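tool=predict chain=A
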Amino acid sequence: MKRVLILLTIIIYSITLSAQDNSRGSESKVKWYTIEEAEKLIKKEPRPIFIDTYTDWCHWCLKLDAEVFTDPVIAKILNEKYYAVKFNAESKEPVMFQGKKFVNDGRYGKTHELAYALLNSKMSYPTVVFLNDKAQLITPVPGFRSAKEFEPILIYFSGKEWQTTNFNDFMSSFTGTIK
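tool=predict ok
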């Protein structure tokens, strides 16, 4: 009987730990939307749109996915302050955005017409793109950054700070959460 109680205690403890790990995991997962979904959502609840523009072959894009978007602080910021969109810059699927149909018809090589527009024809991967809460382009930000470097950029563009303060001034008073 004692062995059964010990075994049951171990099983219950293991299940509890597993459930805790799963709940922590969901906090560190970004809720990704399509651009069409994000555009609909901002009409109901306005907030900026964050677009991760990537390609399947891009090493730094994969590193961004593995090291930055899995960070719990980054995931929390993206999930609470943005509608996060993941967009393959070489996708073949047509996309409706701002009343216009964007396609990948080979006009820009392998690049999708929407990626070409969002990145201001400066094709570099990864590039994250910030749109305001009316789906208007604020700016593309090219290149890989660590989670610690990424945090202030996300905070800066999440509100109205970018309209009134230059980034260097913002950084002089920014205290991040990521160490």
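Confidence is low (pLDDT under 50) at residues 4-26. DSSP finds eight helices and seven strands in the chain.
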